[in-house]
Amino acid sequence: MKLDAIQLRVRTQTMKNIITATALILFPFIALAGGHSGLGGHGTGVIVDTKVLEGKTGVIVQNITEDIWIWDNPPEGFDAATTASCTQTISFAAGQEAPIGGAVTCTVIDETGDIFINTGTFGGDGVLLTLVGGTGKWAAYTGAQWKGVTRHSLKGGGSVYDFTPAN
Predict the structure, then answer these.
(1) Phi/psi of residue 27, each to 5°?
(2) pLDDT for 106-156, tens place per residue?
(3) In this structure, are residues 132 and 34 in contact, taking their beta carbons and an 8 Å threshold?
(4) Every domain of the chain and the residues it spans
């Protein structure tokens, strides 16, 4: 099916700005409550799958990323680095380059077999993530939050980012 000129323009603008939008939301951080106030770090994420869903008045972009999180000062018994799988959903109004909203969910099974899930929302100033559930050492940190900011966007839709505790 051939796209009309408006749909083609929306799709072209959307694809050009996926990297920019991803930079705003690719901040999969772990949220640790209580003693996490000094724990920050950095990470990198690479998009492994993208879907573009076109509506009448807007576009939704869904990205799946594989990320590595590196902790600056991990607590005793925590890994210095963790891998994560994240799913991001980004919305754009038709004809607009900047995203109008987005959400992300990240899942982790660490080296010792403990798990956690965090969810977050993004805006122009970065991403705010909350640890919503964990087992083992992560269970006590449910509810903690982190704020992430992109340091560098990579060709192909990846990013390098920093994260700091938000609560």
Answers:
(1) -130, 60
(2) 999 999 999 999 999 987 778 899 999 999 998 988 998 989 888 888 887
(3) no
(4) 5-165
* 24 within 8 A of 34, measured Cβ to Cβ: no
- The Cα–Cα gap between 41 and 165 comes to 9
Within 10 angstroms of residue 124's Cβ, the number of other Cβ atoms is 7
Q: Would you give the distance in Å from CA 157 to the centre of its chain?
A: 12
Is 60 exceeded by the pLDDT of residue 30? no
- CATH match of 5-165 with 2.40.350: yes
Q: Which residues contact 139 (CB under 8 A, 6 or more apart)?
A: none
Whole-model pTM? 0.75
Residues across the chain: 167
pLDDT digits (tens, 9 = 90+) for 31-74: 333 445 556 789 999 999 999 999 999 999 999 999 999 988 88
How many other C-beta atoms are found inside a 10 Å radius of the C-beta of residue 44? 18
- 158: helix, strand or coil: coil
